Amino acid sequence: MVRKKPTRAVILLPGTIHFEAVIASFSDWFQDAIVIAVDKGIDKAEKIAPLRCNSDVAVDYWVGDFDSSHHLEIAPTLYREKVRYPAEKDEIDTELALSLAREQGIDRFLLLGGIGGRLDHQTALLFLPVQYPATTFIHTDGVEKLHFLEAGRHYHFLLPLGTTVSLMALTDLAGINLSGVKWPLSNYALKLGSGLTYSNEVVEEQGIEVSIEKGDAWLYLLPADSKRSL
């Protein structure tokens, strides 16, 4: 049987990943997606290896300038190909990983381990959807989750009561509709930089529904039992 060409990719970044939470929500990704480790993100390879039942390696591509991973001892059997880039370049390593995947027709990405760390790199990751239109992004460490919302699409998320919900605008937004939360919105327009859509809360057992007519935004989700705060 010919294996279908992958349409999605898991990107392993150097930050913290809560693997039990990731497996609970996204284990199916490791069955049919390609996996790309970005520089020191390769240190997660051994943990994800058991999840990749349909592959003989944990990581398909290990990419970067390797400035943060040169000291690591990584077994060659954990990855299929190592792609080195110069330290002085125009792109961050994550952009290079995305470009490599997109050349293979990948348009759906799960970013793991990019929450926390240097603020400049975190900001660059948050604005990736603006740079790569018509691409689906989920950005998470397993606990905090960010889902990129495509304009013109309707989304339904089945979430526990009390889940924190924030709509994080990357551009001016128009036609925001949000229901199932403590402070719903209907055909609302939001200027970039406004905090009005932050720290909402799920109040309906059937979850939430959200859509935006125009603009780019992340939907941020945090479980009610999380200890994280401002």
Automatic annotation (TrEMBL):
CDD domains xref list: TPK
> Could you say which EC number(s) this protein's record lists?
2.7.6.2
The record's annotation in SUPFAM superfamilies points to: Thiamin pyrophosphokinase, catalytic domain, Thiamin pyrophosphokinase, substrate-binding domain
Swiss-Prot/TrEMBL keywords: ATP-binding, Kinase, Nucleotide-binding, Transferase
- Work out whether the entry's keyword set contains ATP-binding: yes
Q: Which Pfam families match?
A: TPK_B1_binding, TPK_catalytic
List GO BP terms, alphabetically. Answer: thiamine diphosphate biosynthetic process; thiamine metabolic process
According to the UniProt entry, its GO molecular function terms are:
ATP binding; kinase activity; thiamine binding; thiamine diphosphokinase activity
User: Any keyword Cytoplasm?
Assistant: no
Leading EC class: transferase
Q: Domain named Thiamin pyrophosphokinase thiamin-binding: which ranges?
A: 152-217
Classification via NCBIfam families: thi_PPkinase
PANTHER family, per this entry? THIAMINE PYROPHOSPHOKINASE
Protein's name in the database: Thiamine diphosphokinase
Species annotation: Ignatzschineria cameli
Upper lineage is: Bacteria, Pseudomonadati, Pseudomonadota, Gammaproteobacteria, Cardiobacteriales
